[in-house]
Amino acid sequence: MTRKKKTEAAEEIVTAYKGFNQDLTCRGYQFEIGGTYKHEGDVEACASGFHACEYPLDVLGYYRPAGSRFALVEQSGDLSRHDGDSKVASRKISIKAELTIAGLVKAAIEYTASRCKPVDPESPASSTGDRGAASSTGDRGAASSTGDYGAASSTGCQGAASSTGDYGAASSTGNRGAASSTGCQGAASSTGDYGAASSTGNRGAASSTGCQGAASSTGDYGAASSTGNRGAASSTGDYGAASSTGDRGAASSTGDYGAASSTGDRGAASSTGYRGAASSTGCQGAASSTGDYGAASSTGDYGAASSTGDRGAASSTGDRGAASSTGKHSVAMAAGIEGKAKASTGSAIVLCYRDTDAEGDDYARIVHIKAAIAGQDGIKPDTWYQLNAEGEFVEVDE
């Protein structure tokens, strides 16, 4: 008699999302895209092991959108799950691919939709005809409208709403919900916490107003808005706009003529298309414009503004801010107390010195203001400068 071999249980592999610092480190550990790593020792959520989140937007609670990097990972070996959210600690982790904010939004929508109850084609939650409407109000429900002029609405927790036809709209108002509108001139709105809204059609709009939400609009003429804390807004189409008004949020506009605005503290705004604009108005924020003729403005204290395209402008008006212009024929201006600026050869820096010893209405009055062109009159290119009490340019550390 032949004995059957005992079949070993398959090792659980968890697909998750991980945040990193800009150098791809996490808690002092160096990672690389494509690398696989093994932890020696105990595995306990929030204590030891490699950590990542199964729900994509949960990672924003640990790594703010501004200045962080994100990746799709696979976790295996010993696993330990956190009670408060979808965080998982594991013995082994593989860093599969880097993700943008828009990629996190897409993943959040797919995550939510995959966990919803299937839509019954005969139910009011499904509408496949033109000018139809679909509504799902229960928890973990889904609403789908695939016809032109349709609308899809899911108001329960963990629900999803999808409208794929032209001129459609998708709305998810429950916690952890997702809204997606892929047709032209559509709109997607997610107002609950941890939600995501995505509009991929031309002239679409995506709005996420809950905490830790994300909004992405990838079509031309689109707009993405995230008003909750730790949210992210991304608009990748031409003429688009991205706005993030909560603290620690990020706004990114990668299309030409686009605009990115981050108004909360420690946020970031990035505009990479031509003639775009990036504005960060909160303290310790950053604004970056990498296209030609673009503008970057940081108005909060300790902020940074960077313009890397030709004929662009970088302005930092808050105290102790920094303005950098690395493109040709551009201008970098730091107008706050102890501001600094640097520019490439042929570009200009503008600095002022303010009186911080004065009192009352005279506090921070302008004593000196001076402009110079890098590469001329002793001003070194790509070197940080401040203006001293005598109105002279002095080199300062980065």
Describe this structure in words.
By secondary structure, this protein is mostly beta strands. The protein has 3 domains: 14-99, no CATH class; 120-246, no CATH class; 274-398, no CATH class. 4% of the residues lie in helices and 41% in strands. It has 1 helix and 36 strands. The strands form 5 sheets. It has a 14-stranded mixed sheet with strand order 9-11-13-15-17-19-21-23-25-27-29-31-33-34, with no helix packed on it. Strand 35 (385-387) and strand 36 (393-395) form a beta hairpin. Mean pLDDT is 84; it is low at 3-7.
Question: Which structural class do you get from the secondary structure elements?
Answer: mainly beta
Low-confidence stretches: 3-7
Distance linking N and C termini: 77 Å
> Which percent range fits the helix content?
under 10%
Number of helices: 1
The total beta strand count reads: 36
* Number of discrete domains: 3
Evaluate the radius of gyration. Answer: 24 Å
**Largest sheet: spatial strand order:** 9-11-13-15-17-19-21-23-25-27-29-31-33-34
Region (Disordered): 116-150, 163-275, 298-327
InterPro entries: Collagen_Structural_Proteins, DUF7666
Domain DUF7666: 14-106
Keywords: Repeat
List the helices and strands and how they pair.
Layout: E1 14-20, E2 25-26, E3 29-30, E4 36-38, E5 50-53, E6 69-81, E7 87-99, H1 101-114, E8 126-127, E9 133-136, E10 142-145, E11 151-154, E12 160-163, E13 169-172, E14 178-181, E15 187-190, E16 196-199, E17 205-208, E18 214-217, E19 223-226, E20 232-235, E21 241-244, E22 250-253, E23 259-262, E24 268-271, E25 277-280, E26 286-289, E27 295-298, E28 304-307, E29 313-316, E30 322-325, E31 331-334, E32 340-343, E33 348-355, E34 365-373, E35 385-387, E36 393-395
Parallel strand pairs: 8-10, 9-11, 10-12, 11-13, 12-14, 13-15, 14-16, 15-17, 16-18, 17-19, 18-20, 19-21, 20-22, 21-23, 22-24, 23-25, 24-26, 25-27, 26-28, 27-29, 28-30, 29-31, 30-32, 31-33
Antiparallel strand pairs: 1-6, 2-3, 4-7, 5-7, 6-7, 33-34, 35-36
